[in-house]
């Protein structure tokens, strides 16, 4: 009998995903852009530009002729623009801080791992040095051998002296 082919998705193969209507965003690229923007927003250059723009805005809207002014005294449009800028700047700064915190976390873990390896290596070396010291305690050192050779030479010299004295006394 011929096998009936099953209809429907197979469990041994991944599902084919359909196209999504939502745009996809690369999180690495978005993170890099947010860090760049946050770095610029925290610079003296940005503060200088911002000060110049706000000063020019206030001077223009107070000193220019009334028909050329864009924003009258309470400067509502300037307040709106600054609020809009702050509402975009705050999340970008938070994104940059989160990415930095993630990098710091990885760096701290690598430092911890490196420290653990160094401690293990130093423990191993300490044990090896201790075993070498114990082994050296059982091995004859150069000074010990020199001392033994000196004492043997002295004994040999005394034996020669005594044998000379014995030979001299026998001859007489």
Features:
single chain; 172 residues; mainly alpha; 74% helix
Query: Which structural class should the secondary elements be placed in?
Result: mainly alpha
DSSP summary: helix tally: 4
Major sheet summary line: none
Give the beta-strand count: 0
Distance between the termini: 130 Å
- Give the DSSP E fraction (strand runs of 2 or more residues): under 5%
**DSSP helix fraction:** over 70%
Low-pLDDT stretches: none
Q: How would you sum up this structure in a few lines?
A:
This protein is mostly helical and 172 residues long. The protein contains 4 helices and no strands.
Account of the 3D structure:
By secondary structure, this protein is mostly helical. The chain has a domain at 29-141. It contains four helices and no strands. The protein has helices at 27-41, 44-63, 76-138, 142-171. Helix 1 packs across helix 3. The longest helix is centred in the middle third of the chain and has 63 residues, at 76-138. The model has no long low-confidence stretch (mean pLDDT 87).
